[in-house]
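Try it yourself: sequence plus iron/sulfur cluster, in.
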Amino acid sequence: MLNSGQKNYRKRKTRRITVRDVPIGDCSPVTVQSMLSVPTTDIDAALKQIRELQTAGCDIIRIAIPDSDSVEAFRRIRAETDSPLVADIHFDHRLAIEAANAGADKLRINPGNIGSVGKVKEVAAAAKDLNIPIRIGVNAGSLPKDLSDNEPMAEKMLEAASREIDVLLETGFEDIVVSLKAHHPVPTVEANRLFSERYGFPLHLGVTEAGLPGEGGIRSAVGIGTLLMEGIGDTIRVSLTGNPVREVVVGRQILRACGLLESGIELVSCPTCGRCKVDVEKIASEVLERLPKTDKHLVVAIMGCEVNGPGEAKMADIGIAGGDGFFLIFKKGEPFGKIAEAEAVERLLKEIEGLIL
Ligand code: SF4
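Structure, out:
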């Protein structure tokens, strides 16, 4: 791959924990998480969505456990999949303990609603017995009620996390992951910066309730991407309304844009302008739709004319630069001939297949 975004920042070192067989923290690759959107008790739908998320590249999958029926469903889902599964619990600490015993690879609890210190300690004891980590998930919308309204949001989020960390550390429990999420990127970024200055626990990054895929994806990219490019963050979840597969697609796009994911095919195409005499949008859309899946990292460039076209196409693994009804084709930086516009899609896909074999 010739056109790689070179990252020039160093990932901050954090404590390493493991979720089933997936490491989080230290120098491990940043992982992508998502959460099932179907009812946990609909086991067939849950397993189907787990498979879809795995195919999209999801490393860790979270499942809501709102009641005892969901614990039983979780136990059966656990038996049917190898995916690392996180049990997500609010309000009732007993469900967290039951989910841990039902095979959860990690627990997620919210300090704002799980209840007394004693209850958190009971959850920690169960997690310690089973050797699974706990994520303390701080959300700006559900902070402990005694935190002052006058304090800046980022500091309140840090304080909420600190209190819960202290409780877990008192019990000798250290396999802790923390998330500090607000629905806006600015307090999210500030809270995570403050946290990473004070603690070495791994951070799960996300902008919570970011919204529908368009604006939500941008809010997530700004919040998560800013932190990743400062070397902060060990695992990410993009929260979007709708099918969670889109969260994984956007999450992987954010990692790639930050230079943290070197697999799959990266499509570069120009915005076109008055000089363009080929249909870049149609060709790029069709190629994108039909791109094969691969663990190799390839850059494919589709450019409209001779201004930036040859330069960008030469930097790609395979690239085309438009003329009047034709394209010049470049492979690994070298000119490779001329093709008619009508042949462009099939030829590009054929060349891509050849490069990923
Ligand atoms: S590559 Fe050419 S057609 Fe595309 S935006 Fe640049 S100048 Fe315009």
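One thing you can check immediately is this: The domain at 264-356 is CATH 3.30.413.10 (Sulfite Reductase Hemoprotein; domain 1).
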